[in-house]
Automatic annotation (TrEMBL):
It comes from the Bacteria. This is Membrane associated serine protease, rhomboid family. Keywords: Hydrolase, Membrane, Protease, Transmembrane, Transmembrane helix. Gene3D superfamilies: Rhomboid-like. Residues 210-223 have a biased composition (Basic and acidic residues). It comes from Treponema porcinum. GO terms for cellular component: membrane. The chain crosses the membrane at residues 21-46, 104-128, 134-165, 177-197.
Length: 246
């Protein structure tokens, strides 16, 4: 009994991916508050306006519209929409956050949401909400498990074709789930994968090369110290040829 209690005492819940978990908890909290406020919170603060032909166009004179360009990733149409996106984000986010770091992932999400929001406000006839762009960005980032200068993973190509094709040929009733968001998020993910991964790899290779150079340097210094500390042979004026001493 004592062993079982000590075993459970050692188990603790860790906040292993702060950016991913904070994002997910915030999105859930906003959905709860939106339900308590009878569906008025998300349309007012967490929905990107559409373009000039939209029923709710973007207004350059309203400061809140600029915030909504980024905040739309926290709002969702319903619980199914939220769960669908969070299932990808919670699965892939910790892996990406460990690989790139929390600040870089937060920057990726910010840029992706801003790019998607601006495109929707400029070209889309419909308002947009949801984190579909973030989920798609993470899908493409995760597919880049091994990037080299002359190599593109086949998994990336297949995912790109499947998801972009699905969005392009979606039924008209599905267009409000942000066709533009998926494509723009995927492009941002591809850009981050190409830009960030080589730098991370170069730092890793540079660190490994530095360690190897340090080991070689230490080895050379050890050899030189051994040679330096080795007593020099006593000088002899005699000349030796073979075994005959003259």
């Amino acid at each position: 009994m004592g062993k079982k209690s000590s075993f459970f005492k050692k188990i603790r819940i860790s906040y292993n991916a702060p950016v991913t978990l904070t994002f997910a908890l915030t999105a859930v909290l906003i959905m709860v508050l939106n339900a308590l406020l009878k569906g008025t919170l998300i349309p007012a603060f967490f929905t990107v306006p559409g373009g000039a032909g939209s029923s709710a166009p973007f207004n350059i004179h309203v400061p809140l519209d600029y915030l909504r360009l980024v905040l739309h990733i926290f709002g969702h149409a319903d619980w199914n929409h939220l769960v669908s996106n969070l299932s990808f984000i919670l699965l892939l986010g910790p892996v990406i956050e460990e690989r790139y770091g929390s600040p870089v992932l937060a920057l990726m999400m910010l840029v992706t949401s801003l790019v998607t929001g601006v495109l929707n406000a400029c070209f889309s006839p419909l308002p947009m909400l949801g984190s579909s762009d973030i989920a798609f960005m993470m899908i493409l980032l995760t597919s880049f498990t091994s990037i080299s200068k002359n190599e593109i993973p086949l998994s990336f190509i297949l995912i790109l074709i499947l998801y972009v094709g699905r969005e392009l040929f979606a039924r008209p009733s599905d267009q409000n789930i942000a066709t533009l968001a998926h494509i723009a998020g995927g492009l941002c993910g591809s850009m981050f994968a190409f830009l960030a991964m080589p730098k991370a790899a170069s730092r890793k290779n540079g660190t490994a090369q530095k360690k190897q150079d340090d080991r070689n340097k230490s080895s050379d210094e050890g050899c030189s110290r051994t040679v330096k500390n080795k007593p020099a042979p006593e000088e002899d004026d005699s000349t030796v040829v073979g075994s005959i001493e003259l």
